Amino acid sequence: MLANINWADIGQATLDTLVMLGGSLAFSVLLGLPLGVILFLTGPRQLLANRPANMALSFVVNVLRSVPFVILLIVMIPLTVLLVGTSLGVAGAIPPLVVGAAPFYARLVETALREVDKGVIEAGQAMGATPRQIVFGALLPEAMPGIIAGATVTAIALVSYTAMAGVVGAGGLGDLAIRFGYQRFQTDVMVVTVVMLLALVQGLQWAGDRLIIKVSRR
Amino acid sequence: MISFQSVGKTFARAPAPALVGVSLEIAPGEVFGVIGQSGAGKSTLIRLINGIERPSSGHVLTDGADVGALDPQALRDLRRRVGMIFQHFNLLSSKTVAANVAFPLKVAGVPRGEIGPRVAELLDRVGLADQAHKYPAQLSGGQKQRVGIARALANGPKILLCDEATSALDPQTTEQILDLLARLNRELGLTIVLITHEMEVIRRVCHRVAVLDAGAVVESGEVAEVFLHPQHAVTRALVADAAGLLVAQGLGAGPTLRLTFRGAATYEPILGRIARDTGVDYSILAGRIDRIRDEPYGQLLVSLVGGDVAQARARLSAAGVRVEEA
Asked: Do A137 and B77 touch (CB under 8 A)?
C-alpha cells in the first residue's frame, strides 16, 4: 500500500493545481462576468438590444466553447507565449484555461441574469435609472446567487481542465495521475490523486453553496 | 397634467393595434382610473405616460413634456418626477426595505447624508417605520406594496402611476392600499392614474374613469355617472350587476323604472312620501345602497302600479331623483 507515493510530489502537484485553478478562475470571472452582462443586455428586447453585436459575441463564445480543451491548449500556444512569455508549466496553462472557461462562465452569467424578474428592470427604468445604474444597482445584486453558482460550476470544470494541462507540462494532480497512476501502473498514486481531486471539488461546492446561502434573501 | 392626443400604439408582430385614437385629459390633483378587461390596452396606456412605451402615432404630454419626443436623458429626468407602482411590486429581493426605498434617491444623485432621513420619513408615511431592515420576502403583500409606494414617492413626484397595484392583494388589503392612495392624493395633491380590471377599485378612489376596450376609450366621465348609468356593453359587464339593477327582468306588473338617489337624497323618505301623495303603489324589484368615494347613493328598480304615475315621476325628478325607464 502506498509504496509508490512521494508525498513531496503530491504536495507540489496539489500546489500547482491550486495555482492553476485560482489564477484561471480569477481571470475567467473577470472576463466572463462582463461578457455575460453584455450578452444579456444586447439580447432581444433587453435594455441595450443590439442584434449584430449580440450575434457576433454569441458566435465567438460558441466557437470557443466548441473547441475541445486539449486542442485549445495546443492551438493557443503562440498566443500563450505572447501573453505570459512561455507556453510551458503552470503559467503556460493559465491562458488556455481562461479562454476555455470564460465563455462558459459568460453563458452561465447570462442565464442567471435572465432569471431576474423583468419587473425589476422595469421598476429601474420607471425611476429614471440609467442602464448602468440598473445593472449595478438591481440586476447584479438580484442575480448574485446565480452568478456565484455559475462560478462554482466553472471552478469545478476548471479542476478537470487542469488535469489536461499536463499536455503542456503544467503539472498538477491530474498530470500526476496520468503519468504515474496510468502510464506506470502505480494504482496507489492514482487513488491518492483522485482522492485529492475529490476533496478539492467537494470543498469548492461546499464553499459555493455557503456563499449562495449567505447572499440569498428570497 | 397628462394629455393623450389621438394616441395609437402598434407593436411589431402583433395582429391588432394595442391602442387606437386615444384622447384623454387628466387634471392635476385628480385620481383618474382606466378600467378594461385584460388585453384591452391598459398596461400600454399607463406605460406611455412615463415613456416606457412610445406612441406609434399622436402625442402624450406628461407634465408639459411631449414624452415621445424626449431624448434619453430628458426622459430619465421626467421619470424621476413620475412615480410608478406595480401589480407584483417589483422590489429588489436582495435588498432591505430601506435600501429599496433608497435606490431611486441614489439614482437621482441625492447626497448620501440626506438619504437616510428621507427614507425614514417615507417609510413613516406608508406606515412601515419599524420594517426598515427586513427583506421583501419577510413582508406580506400589502406591506410589499407599501414599500413600492414609498419607493415611488422617494423623489417627490407630482404624478403616481398604479399598474394593477391591488390586483395581487386580498380584498381587505386592497382597501387599505386604496385608502393610502386616497390619503396621498389629498395630502400631497398627487395626481394618480390607476389601471385596473376591478370596478370596485374605481368606485372607491377615482374621481373620473375611462373605459378601455380593444385599445379604444368607449366611455369616460365622472365615476358616479359611468358607474350608475353605464352606456357601453363593456362598461355594463365591468360594473358586474350583481343586484340586477341594470336589466329589467319583466317582473313588475306596471311600468318599471330605475331610480337613482345621490348624496343627501339617499337618506330621505322620498319614495314613500310621493307614493302616498300620488296614490301610486310600488314594488321594489332590486336595489343597492352604497358609496362612491365618500358620496352615498341608492339605486332602486321599482315597478309602479295604479295612481298617477306621471305625477309620481315628475315629483321624483323634482326631488332630485334620477328616473329612467328600465
From this structure: no
